[in-house]
Every structure is written in structure tokens, then in C-alpha cells.
Amino acid sequence: MLNTLIGDVGHLSVILAFVAATVAAYSYYMAARGRTLGDTDAGWMKLGRGAFIVHSVAVISVIVCLFGIIHGHRYEYYYAWSHSSNHLPVYYMISCFWEGQEGSFLLWIFWHVCLGLILLRSAKRWEAPVMAIFAGVQLFLTSMILGVVLGDLKIGSSPFILLRDFMPDLPVWQTNPNFVPTDGTGLNALLQNYWMVIHPPTLFLGFALTLVPFAYAVAGLWKGEFTRWVRPAIRWSLWGGLILGVGIMMGAYWAYETLNFGGYWNWDPVENAVYIPWLVLVASLHGLVLWQRSKMALRTSFVLVIATFLLILYATFLTRSGVLGNASVHSFTDLGLSGQLIIYLAAFVVLSVALLVWRWKKIPISEKELTTYNAELWVFVGATVLCLGAFQVLFTTSIPVYNAFLGFIGIKSNLALPADQIAHYTKFQLWLGVGVAFCSGLAQIMWWQKNDRASLSSTLTVPAMLALLGSALVILLVQYNGKKMELTYIVLLTTALFGVLANLSMVFTLLRRKVSLSGGGVAHMGIALMLLGILASSGYSNIISQNTSGLLYSREFDQTTNQDNVLLWRNDPSRMGPYDVRYTGQYFDVPGVPGYVDKQQLYRTDDEYKALARADIKRGDKVYYKAGDTLEILPENTYYRVEYENRETKDKFTLYPRAQVNEQMGGLLASPDIKVFLDHDIYSHISAVPPIDKEKDWSEVKEHVLSIGDTIFLNDYFAVFRGVEPAKQTAGLGLTKDDLAIQGDFLVSGEKKQYHVHPVFAVRNRLIGRMPDEVEDLGLRLSFLNVDPQQGKFTFGVSTTQKDYIILKAVEKPFINLLWSGTLLMAVGFGMAIYKRRRETEAPAVPAPEAGTKPRPVIPQPKPQAVA
């Protein structure tokens, strides 16, 4: 039944949220206008707080309504119909919430609400100017889901639009205006993963956190407080760096675990759009720390903090405007919001640049002369390297934007993204890694000591010598295993080892001095480990599934697929690298049953999401379903069981790579399964399977007239006819008391095990029906054709087909655990830095120099700060 009430409530809540954000932004602006920091108009201040709280309540109302539509399967709404379905568990329904553009905008708005409410309590003197910026951003974001049409002007795209309004040309509306679909189109197959539940919220929280230091920076420029904003901005930037960095690596692990492009990073434009602002955010954090310690790089800090948030907005434009439609599989389609996104980006670019130009000369600078022995120089060089790396990725990723802009002004552009994007980006980003590893190690050592030639040489000698020795050993091992090491790899290896050892030595030094540990040192060590993991796993991955048969699998495959995959016939062992592998069949995921269930234990019904158990389904002594029970399955995912046995060690393990056939997404969607060892991973995925949606090509039926106890030979197998018995409900016959159904009982001996086969002969309403039974492992099908009760003879038909097979690719990823452990260490370092600063209070104000005067150099002697 059509239900418009919940959608009306949701849409009204969006409008209320938009109006309240507008009122809050204006009220906070008026509260701070023309006044010094901390001196506000109480009336406007009260109105601003109240309006933001109303905005927050309205946003929560929108979320409740939208999730209610998804959870309640209200398919009269386009959003629920296009992203959800009846068979999704609750956690995937949560994922449906942010799969679409409107839901992801709403998730971003929600995190801003949470952060804004925290700022209401913690910003104190900064509240009015900071919340004016905050509410202004909310105004723009809320407009993206407003869904208001004024003549030819469309403002936002509403998640509460009815299906009949979104697709008005469907003929069904002519006969039934209140038509409601019985099911939705479902969540994208590749997004049905637990990472979809946790990765987007983490990433959008990282996006949201970049707004806070931006708001402090803009408020500082606005109020002429050029230095006080730094301390709160550092704390929020640390949180942003932690959450956004972890979110990015969550996405990398999700890709590694779910996609079959062979790794954790594909340099897709959408991946780049998130990576770029994180690099600049980390660079801005180093600039802020430089100002706190040495009163340097304040102008740079302003620029980088502002640029981080603007790059987040630019990333939003890239991924949601449709401009990357032909360049990325991850980008959203254009919902007609391109103009709004451009206005949104342009408004904050103009505001930020105007304030920077206006205040530039008044921002304090330092006249301290930097030399080679100043740690600040190397911190600044490291920040510069990060920015250069970000710019290189930004420049290439934006090629579709250049083309779109030139086309808009009537100029035809032939610019194209690099044919091999991975090679293109790697060529430059390798040197980014070299610079980051070297600077992080050198700067961290210099940060905690007084430096001159003698002291620096003494401190650097041990980590530098160990890094060189370690590199030499690795190079020898690589050559011993028949591989070569390029010069760039050698340089990256050496500097990354130096980064790990230099930061580790400083951590031990601080422990000996009983000084609180440096979060920056731990984070830098983690990043250096990540670089080593990337170098080893990507630079020296080893394809162990080489085709040594001399056969061409298919002319439709490219040369790489024919060379780098192994053909596995069902139950036939094959050699693959150091392993003997055997493909043993197809399996389904049955909710509530641990592991996977053999497809041969299930009888499919007319409902593709339900099956009958043909035998007891149990794990150990626990029976989850008895024979004949109806159970739910997830039919879109088929798991292919592959057994591995190491020929030398005899160690065994089993993998279940997954494949889905989805013509709308290009055919076969394969997800790997991974066996994790201490020093490497075995990464296996399906490259091809027999056509699942195509009827098997069976041979002509060969008839056998048998008596009970007879044996027949079926190709390389033999079967014993053990008798006839009443047919069981496990065949899915739906038998009634007036029906007659019997089944033959065969025991077929295969290569590895025996199979019970039960072809059925049924009589219903004087009509004969036959239901064959199939042994997929052997490519056999038996049919019960006739009964001769007088002679005690039974006629069975046997037909054969090509045995089941898969084409599998397996790759050895050496030392990839260094990447994941380095990520964890980086997160711990950020957490330590946040913990260390938790009790810091605002520093005394540093008076800004008057316009036209030269600021006096400040040479403070503070306690050393950790580089974050």
C-alpha cells in the first residue's frame, strides 16, 4: 500500500534542517560581526545555538525517516527500490543508507552535526566565528538533498522522491497509479561486504573532521587572531589525520579482500580523490607543529589547512558530478547537481582566498635562518614532498575536468588519462615514498637533540649503517631468488629501512631518558613499514598459477589471462607452483550455518532465496538443518572450494574464492580468498567459470534396464542400483496423499568418494513426471524412465556432460603484513599524539604586528613537541 506520510515527514525535516542551518549561520555571523574574539552579541548567540540544535534534531529526523523507508521495504520510494531488497540482512540495509548520493550526503551532514554539538561545548571564545563557518557548510550540504524544484531550477536531490515521480514514463502508472513493487533491485553485489558497513562512515567522519581546523583558520583570519587558532586546530587535525588515514586504508584492505584487480590500490580517480587531501592534511599538521615549536611556517599552515578542506570539496565534485563517469567505476552518476557542487566549491574558494589576500601581510613570519642542522628545515622539506606528491596525483586525476571545462568553452581537448595508470602514478609516487621515508627519519632524530656536525653524525651512523647493510642483504636475497631490483626500488628500500631504524632508535632514546614517547616517531615508523610492505608485495608479487600445459584456454581471453591462470577440472589435482591444488565443488553461504554449504546438499526451489536440505547439514555433532528442511540461501554468491597442499611440507589449507555472474556489471564478478602466512599471502581469485545461466550441453541419453543389485559402468565410474523407495520431500515435489512418487537409490563411486543419487519417477493426475538427479562432481545425470513391475525391471537413462571446472589465478604477496602492521602503527602514533595533547589549554595570545611593520623574530625555548 502506498505510504507517503513518512516521505513527507522526511522531506519537511530536510527543509527544516536547511532553514535552521541558514538561521544558525546568519545568527552566528551577526553575533561575531565587528567584535573581538570572545566578545559576542548575546541575543544573536542564543539564536544561533538554538537554530543549530533545531538543525541537528531535523537531521536526525531525516535519518530516521530514510532508514525507516529502507528497513520497512517501502519500495514506493525510489531510494529504497534502487538500493535495497527483501533479502538483505539489517547490516546491509544500513549500507543501503549511504550507497546512494543522497544518503552519503546525509551521512556527511550527520557527522558535521555531531562535531558541531561538540564545538558548542568546547569552542568557548571561538564558538561564534567557528560555528558561523560550520553552519554555512551545513547550509550548502543540506541544499544537496533539498529536492526543491522552482520552475526550471532544481535545488538538490531528495531521497524521499516517489518511484512514480522519478520514473513517470513507466506504463504501469497508467493502469495503477498506486503501484508498489514487491521487491527492490538490491544492494550492488560488490558492496555486500562488512567493510561497506564501517568504511564509508569512517571515511566521511574523516571528511567532516577537516572542516574543524578549516573553520578555526578562517575564523582566525576573520577576527585577526593569527596564532591562537593553531592549538585547537592541531588537536582536530590529528583526529582528522588518524580517522581519514585509517578510512583510506580500510578501503585499501576492502579492495584487497573483495576485488580481483590484484591488490589494494588501483589508482582509480575516486581513490585518488581521497588520498590527495589526506597528504595535504598531514603536511598542514607538520606546518602547525612547526609554528608551535619555532614560530615558523604560519602562512604555510594557513594555506595548507584551508587547501585540505577545499580539496575535500573538490573530491566531492569529482566523484558526484559525473565528470569521472568514463574514468572510474566508483564514481556516482550525475543527478543534476553539478552546478550546485561548483557553486559550493567556488563559494568557499572565494571566501578563503579573499581572507588570505586581505590578511596575508599581517600573518606573523619568522626571520630565523634555517641551516642544514635545523630539524625545522627537514620537517618543512617533508611537508613539501607530501604536497608535491599530492599535486602530481591531482594534476593527472583532473584530466577529465580539464576536458569538460575546455569543452564547455568550445575548445576540443584530446587529453586522456594514462593508458597504464598504475605504472604512471607509481613512477612518481615511488619518489614521494623515498622523500617521506628519508625526511621522517632524519627530522625525527634531529627534533629531539641539539644538532651540529659531530652530534648528527654520531646519531645517524648506526641507523644509516644498519639500513645499508639491511638493503644489501635484501638485494642479495632477491638476486638469489632469480629476481632483479631496479635502482628506484633499491633507493626506496634503503630510505624506508632508514626511516624505520631512525625512528626506532629515537623511541629507545626517549625511553632511556624517561621522556614521554613521540607519537610522531611511532607514526613515522608505521609509514616507513607501510612503504616496505608496498614495495615487497607489489614490486615482487609472484604469480604461482602459471599455465604450463601449453594449452590456450580461450581465444576470448587476453594473453595474460591464458598465461597466468591454471585450469582446474573438478576433483582433478593439478600442480601450481609449490602446491598441488584441487577444485572440489561449488558452495553457498547459508545464514546461520558456519562456513559454506555444498551446493549438492541443497535442492533449489522456485524461490531463488530458498532451498531444501537433501541431507542433514551439520558441523561436528551439531545439526543445523535436517533433511527436508527449508533454509535460506544467498544465491548471488557462489563459492568455489579449492584445496591446497604444499608438496614439500605437506601443509594443507582450503580457500573459497567467490564469483558472481552479473551481466549488468560486465559478466563475472570475482572476489578473492586469501591465505595469510607470517611472511606472505596466497591471493586466489576466479578468472572464469562455465556459463552459469546457460543450460548444460548433455549427451544423448543412454538407457539401462536394471534389476535391484545390478552394476553399470558410467565412463570412468561405476554405479550400483541398490533399490527403489518412496520419494522424499527433499526432492521438492510438494507431494500430496493422492500422488505416487518413487525414487531409485544408486551408489556411484567417484575418484575420491561415493555419491548417493536419487532420480524420481512420479505420477500425479494420471500424468507421469520424471525428475533426474545430477552428480555435478562427475558430470553425470540419471533419470528414472520406466517401471516394469511384472518383470521387476527398471529403466534408467544416463547422460553425461563436460565436467565442471574453474580457471584460477593465484598470486603470492610477500611481506604484505608489513603494510597492514604499518597502518596499525601509524594509527597508534596518531593516537599517542592526540592523547599527549588532550589537556593542553589555549596558549597566551601572541599579538599580531601592526600593518606595515616588520614582525620581530621570536626565538622561544619550548619543550620539544612530537611531530605528528
From TrEMBL:
Chain residue ranges for the region called Disordered: 841-868
InterPro entries according to UniProt: Cyt_c_assembly, Cyt_c_biogenesis
Keyword Transmembrane: yes
Compositionally biased residues, Pro residues: 857-868
Keyword tags: Cytochrome c-type biogenesis, Membrane, Transmembrane, Transmembrane helix
Membrane spanning residue stretches: 12-31, 52-72, 105-123, 130-150, 203-222, 234-255, 275-291, 298-317, 337-358, 378-408, 428-448, 460-481, 487-510, 522-540, 815-835
Gene Ontology BP, a term: cytochrome complex assembly
Domain Cytochrome c assembly protein: 103-321
One GO CC term on file: membrane
Assigned protein family: Belongs to the CcmF/CycK/Ccl1/NrfE/CcsA family.
GO molecular function (one): heme transmembrane transporter activity
Name of the protein described by the UniProt record: Cytochrome c-type biogenesis protein CcmF
